[in-house]
Amino acid sequence: MMQGYGKIFTYTVPKVYAMFFKDFEKTFLPNWLIGGTAYYTSYVELICGFLLIIGLFRKYALYLLGIDLLVVSFGHGLLEPIWDLQHVMPRAILLIIILIAPAEWDRWNVDRFWSADISRT
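Above: the chain sequence. Below: its structure as tokens.
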């Protein structure tokens, strides 16, 4: 969540684009896709990170963050064939662990309270 917060509120997405995404203009990727990816990764990291913290739409948030990691991995690999995995691997491992962990282990989340209220009515 804090990565997305920094991209959106501290730097702003256009500055993030200039810092990290400008190099992709030299690749085969169209500019509209590069710009869209800058916004996608920034907002998904912020929104889905927050959703995971409060436990709302957990599976959807994890899937969107998984796509985010795939996009980031593809981008790094496109610019630099052999790149440092120190930022992606810990996040990917944590994401996979949370995704395969039984939902019953997560007792304090909005989804659980919400589904309990719905089943009572």
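The helical segments are 2-11, 13-21, 31-54, 58-79, 88-100, 110-120.
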